[in-house]
């Protein structure tokens, strides 16, 4: 007699588990962009869009797994997430961040400016590395954080070498205006990307943060498409980003060469 497996029970279990899994992930996402990284249960529940009782129950499980840590009545992300985050390919030995590290260090020494490495994800840039120079300026970006690609030098450098679909997604999503200098006109934005393709360098002149200017160069693969971008930033009052283009380009080309190898 032939026995057939009935998947209904497994399917039901999956359907029952999926909402809780997604809610737990939303709880973790709630910590994104939090200054200090500490939140109370009520705020976590509000950000995640779940009832407070649900948030408390799931946070208990996340705490047991090391994904969050409890500080009094509040919570912060746990060290286990740090371990997992550094296990993703981009951060592992011979990954992009590892390959870029020595070149970013050299760029810092040569320019004495804030140095960044980022990748493009959808319509945003994700910062993989950030090394401070001597300037005391406070910068809103953080390692692992995101910024709109359309108003950052890093984002424009990558978009110019990422194909039409990436650019179309940014335009359809709407150009973000973080400051009065951010480009909000699509025609002007496309003109800017055309210039970046021609010159190989993108600039941010107080578009993402008042008082901050930046020059960025894409890291290209063998087909000439951007896999990342490198930048050097400084205060608008005493830094001309054009003066560091040669050094930023040298770093980006070295990273691209080593990463392709």
Automatic annotation (TrEMBL):
Transcription keyword on record: yes
Residue span(s) of domain HTH iclR-type: 18-79
SUPFAM superfamilies per record: GAF domain-like, Winged helix' DNA-binding domain
Pfam families on file: HTH_IclR, IclR_C
Chain segments annotated as transmembrane: none
Location of the IclR-ED domain: 80-261
UniProt entry keywords in alphabetical sequence: DNA-binding, Transcription, Transcription regulation
InterPro entries registered for this protein in UniProt: GAF-like_dom_sf, HTH_MetabolicPath_Reg, Tscrpt_reg_IclR_C, Tscrpt_reg_IclR_N, WH-like_DNA-bd_sf, WH_DNA-bd_sf
PANTHER family from the UniProt entry: HELIX-TURN-HELIX TRANSCRIPTIONAL REGULATOR, ICLR FAMILY, HTH-TYPE TRANSCRIPTIONAL REPRESSOR ALLR
Protein name: IclR family transcriptional regulator
